[in-house]
From TrEMBL, chain A:
Chain ranges passing through the membrane: none
Catalytic reactions of this protein: propane + NADH + O2 + H(+) = propan-2-ol + NAD(+) + H2O
Protein name: propane 2-monooxygenase
Major enzyme class: oxidoreductase
A Pfam family reported for this protein in Swiss-Prot or TrEMBL: Phenol_Hydrox
Sample GO molecular function, one term: oxidoreductase activity, acting on paired donors, with incorporation or reduction of molecular oxygen, NAD(P)H as one donor, and incorporation of one atom of oxygen
Keywords, comma-separated and alphabetical: Monooxygenase, Oxidoreductase
Biased composition (Basic and acidic residues): 1-11
Region Disordered: start-end pairs: 1-37
Top-level taxon in the UniProt lineage: Bacteria
Entry EC no(s): 1.14.13.227
UniProtKB/TrEMBL annotation, chain B:
Transmembrane segments: none
Protein name, UniProt field: propane 2-monooxygenase
Keyword annotations: Monooxygenase, Oxidoreductase
Superkingdom of the source species: Bacteria
Organism: Pseudonocardia hydrocarbonoxydans
């Protein structure tokens, strides 16, 4: 009796190659060669975050021998350092002029300018931002689902339903616009890979938070009888309380060719004076008294994004510029000018929002107290950056 | 997860679409295209509530496989021939990825459809994922593969050498110039829709055949995002097509983008797949066969041709010409031969071809041995230092090529080389389409039409210019392609890691100086230039000198 032979399949054959680390000794086989050696870490040890972000994008001062190879019609190339008025030490030094027989001509002392010193203290890269945001959406979904199952929305006071419908709903637009048209927009303009990664992460926080609010709004319109899921559009488009802040938000997207001013005005001025004013000093304070334990968990996730993460990179980005070894005075003057420009706009918008404090049945702490807290928080942030709270703050 | 259906959730988030009431966003990036506001839907239909957990799960699989590869001693069966070429590929690819992230907001500014911006924002996040996950893969190779040199200094190398510069078109081309030309046509319509098939599907399959299952793990995960990006490009293209005035620009940009992708991607990926593999089963697909399947059938016939009915002018002639370059004119073989001719200017080890390889090439590309066989035999003969110089200096019937000003790959199909004088400088081009790209397309007017937003081709586009007259030991030192003993070169024309078999700076010191073809050509008078071109066009195949005139 014979056994039918199965024809041999055509598949690649594994081979023993012994190509693993340590299999032989030769120049560069040692452990010291197993690290990215083209950049200087910020601290003693290279971090995983640095390994996956630093120097991915080139700089003509570093090793970019042939220079940028595409230009815009106006002659600008790459990520021009002039796309913000801020300056980091070294930026005024000319790029190496390469030509026939010059070689690479790269700058020996690296970094050649201060922008390359920036590291995101949150050390964000793909692994971290997916884990973080996946956790947030899971927790938010569970919180809302738990409330739905517990019929928690039945406990809301009548006016609170309207407040959430119109005002918490209106906030989604602000997060969306800042996410897409401020932070995503400036991710093209900023000078290093560490900057634009931080901008993208800030952007995704905001877009996610906007969507969290929109989907929360959808749940409420499914769960609460009479809850108008489109009322947020009317509030955003027409309510006087929202038009001042809308002007500021739209103005942030319209800053004239300066990614630095856009990010600074948003995270240093707008967020504490208007963002936290509404989120932490109104919604979070009023919700419990009106029978709502859910909305604060949704809002709280966005608040954490800003206060624990986005503000941290902002401080690490702008703080050193006020201590810059070459341009500290220049940067301080510029940023003080930005504070004087944006603080009055934000305060005017804040005052226009004051009627919101009267809308819930159970009243939150007074608007003036909330605004004082926001101003105090803002002053702390500004001082930490090495700047002076502007005189306009006392308006 | 949410009880709400994805469709319902997606519909809800459309309420976020913003119509400015008080201030219009600053329009930093321009385009010569015009768009009417059109009700195109967001094709991605992605909501972050489901997107983030989905991506996290994909990550878990990638990082789980990475752990498994190390625990399972994958590097004991990885082919060095293969992994050496990854030193080039993985130094190039993270920049194009993150440049794609940077390019998305350029579209926000010029495509007046807030619904599409949602998909573009998701793509932006994806692209940061790709860049950092690829940097991480390279880090893993560096830590676990026998020879970390070339991985450990990859970004310095990438920015310094001419292969990196060629690859950089696949980054700067996404983010510079006319926003639609760059971020939509060049990036999403051509690069992502057509050529990521060979980059992220065909190449990982070859990696697996060479014992490396981490590249497929990472890149198939990446490709699952790319397939979503394709629909972003399609939606923008349909919007552009709805305006008659855009058709001339679309025709221009498709020609440029197609040809440039062919020149750059086919050069690199074709070489990796054909010359970086040890899998020589006769029934495994050649790069030409893969190209025919993935690019000609899947992209050209199934995606591009149906768009003709919407008024898109398809560059049929260039698609056929690209195929002719690969199949009849040996484009990939010429590129691989050039890479290996110039091994000393790079930073990875390039293995020679063996009899088994010869047999496979002859089977897949009949006539290959007559053209290229003798040169590869010389390559092997000259691989280890033995009193001779590297192959580029030896008499092996090979003329060092001039470089194409546009795509920066050298002019390897010699008969196609053309020249033009621009701003008093003579430039060489690998093909008429590359001349057209520089001389006609990337200009402020196109066929009499003002194109003020079109980009420019700039920079020191011939690498050899920078080192004209230099000793090769100094060139390699300047670029930093030296190992930690201070003298052994990172690159080698073989895989033997015995230090006695490795080339050092001392070997290079005795070689003739580097000569820039472009500098030399510009030193000729008009008659000399014409004679140079006439001779050049008679050279080849395989870089052979022109036959002596009768």
């Amino acid at each position: 009796m014979t056994t039918a032979q199965r024809p041999e399949r055509s598949v690649p054959k594994p081979q023993f190659t012994d190509a693993e680390a340590g299999a032989q000794e030769f120049p560069d086989s040692g452990a010291s060669a197993r690290r990215y050696n083209y950049y200087k870490p910020a601290k003693r040890k290279q971090t995983h975050y640095e390994d996956v972000t630093v120097d991915v994008q080139p700089d003509p001062r570093h090793y970019l021998a042939q220079g940028w190879i595409y230009g815009f019609a106006d002659g600008s190339r790459g990520y021009p350092l002039t796309w913000t008025k801020l300056k980091a030490w070294g930026v005024d030094k000319p790029e190496p002029e390469n030509g026939v027989g010059t070689g690479n001509n790269h700058v020996e002392e690296w970094p050649a300018h201060g922008w390359h010193e920036f590291r995101d203290p949150n050390e964000e890269w793909e692994m971290t931002f997916y884990r973080y945001n996946a956790n947030v959406v899971r927790q938010t979904t569970q919180n809302v689902e738990n409330a739905r199952q517990a019929k928690a929305f039945d406990n809301w006071t009548a006016n609170w339903k309207t407040f959430v419908e119109r005002n918490v709903g209106a906030w989604m637009h602000i997060e969306h616009i800042l996410g897409l048209y401020v932070f995503a927009a400036i991710n093209r303009s900023c000078p290093t890979n560490m900057h634009n990664t931080a901008m993208v992460v800030n952007s995704m926080h905001k877009i996610r938070f906007a969507q969290d609010l929109a989907l929360y709004n959808l749940t409420l319109s499914e769960e609460i009888e009479g809850f108008d899921g489109t009322a947020h559009l009317d509030a955003w488009n027409n309510d006087a309380e929202w038009q001042g802040i809308r002007k500021v938000v739209e103005a942030l997207t319209a800053v004239d060719d300066d990614w630095g001013e856009m990010a600074f005005a948003t995270n240093v001025v707008f967020e504490p004076l208007l963002g936290e004013l509404f989120r932490s000093n109104l919604v979070q304070q009023a919700a419990a008294g009106n029978g709502d334990f859910v909305t604060p968990t949704v809002i709280g996730a966005g608040e954490y994004d800003y206060s624990q993460r986005d503000l941290r990179w902002t401080q690490a980005c702008f703080g050193p510029l006020t201590q810059d070894k070459e341009f500290a005075a220049y940067n301080k003057e510029l940023m003080q000018g930005w504070l004087s420009k944006w603080v009055p706009r934000c305060l005017e918008a804040a005052r226009a929002m004051q009627p919101l404090w009267s809308q819930p049945d159970a009243k939150p702490p007074r608007f003036e107290d909330a605004l004082d807290r926001a101003k105090s928080r803002f002053a702390g942030i500004v001082t930490e950056l090495g700047l002076e709270p502007p005189k306009e703050l006392s308006q | 997860m949410s009880r709400q259906s994805l469709a319902k959730a997606h519909q809800k988030i459309q309420e976020l679409s913003w119509e400015p009431q008080y201030h219009e966003p600053y329009m930093k990036y321009g385009t010569d295209y015009t768009f009417r506001k059109a009700a195109k839907k967001d094709p991605l239909k992605q909501v972050l509530r489901s997107y983030f957990p989905m991506q996290e799960e994909k990550d878990h699989r990638v990082y789980g496989a990475s752990d498994g590869a190390i625990r399972g001693n994958m590097f004991r069966q990885v082919q060095e021939r293969w992994l050496e070429w990854q030193k080039l590929f993985l130094s190039i690819i993270p920049l194009p990825e993150v440049s794609a992230a940077r390019s998305m907001p350029m579209l926000f500014h010029v495509v007046p459809n807030p619904e599409l911006h949602n998909g573009q924002a998701i793509q932006m996040i994806d692209e940061v994922r790709h860049s950092t996950i690829q940097q991480n893969l390279k880090r893993l190779y560096m830590n676990n593969y026998i020879d970390p040199a070339g991985f450990n200094n990859s970004l310095r190398n990438f920015h310094s050498d001419y292969c990196g510069t060629i690859g950089r078109q696949f980054a700067e081309g996404f983010i510079t110039g006319d926003a639609i030309t760059a971020a939509s046509i060049y990036l999403t319509i051509v690069a992502e829709t057509a050529f990521t098939n060979t980059l992220f599907v065909a190449m990982p399959a070859e990696a697996a055949a060479n014992g490396d299952y981490l590249l497929p793990t990472v890149f198939h995960s990446v490709q699952s995002d790319e397939s979503r990006h394709i629909s972003n490009g399609y939606a923008t293209l349909l919007m552009a097509l709805s305006d008659e005035d855009n058709r001339q620009l679309l025709e221009r940009d498709l020609r440029y983008a197609w040809w440039n992708n062919h020149r750059v991607v086919d050069a690199a990926i074709g070489t990796f797949i054909e010359y970086g593999t040890k899998d020589r089963r006769k029934d495994r697909e050649s790069y030409a066969e893969m190209w025919r399947r993935w690019i000609y059938d899947d992209y050209y016939r199934s995606y591009l041709v149906p768009l003709e009915k919407y008024g898109l002018v398809i560059p049929h002639d260039l698609i056929e010409e690209s195929w002719k370059q690969i199949w009849e004119k040996g484009y990939v073989h010429e590129v691989a031969q050039f890479f290996c001719t110039g091994w000393l200017a790079n930073y990875w080890r390039m293995d020679g071809m063996t009899d088994t390889d010869f047999e496979w090439f002859e089977y897949k590309y009949p006539g290959w041995y007559d053209k290229y066989g003798a040169w590869w035999e010389n390559y092997n003969r000259l691989a280890t230092p033995n009193g001779h110089n590297p192959i580029v200096f030896e008499d092996v019937d090979y003329v060092y090529p001039a470089r194409c000003w546009t795509c920066m790959v050298p002019c390897l199909v010699r008969e196609d080389m053309v020249m033009a004088d621009i701003d008093g400088v003579t430039r060489t081009y690998c093909h008429e389409v590359c001349r057209w790209t520089d001389v006609e397309a990337f200009r402020p007017t196109y066929q009499g039409r003002e194109t003020p937003n079109m980009g420019r081709l700039v920079g020191h586009r011939e690498w050899e210019t920078l080192y004209h007259g230099w000793n090769w030991a100094d060139v390699v030192t300047d670029m930093g392609f030296v190992r930690d003993d201070g003298k052994t070169m990172t690159a080698q024309p073989h895989l033997d890691l015995n230090p006695k078999k490795m080339w050092t700076l001392d070997h290079l010191r005795r070689c003739p100086p580097l000569q820039s073809p472009n500098v030399l050509i510009n030193g000729l008078d008009a008659a000399g230039k014409a004679a140079f071109q006439a001779d050049y066009n008679r050279q080849g195949p395989a870089g052979r000198p022109a036959p002596a005139s009768a």
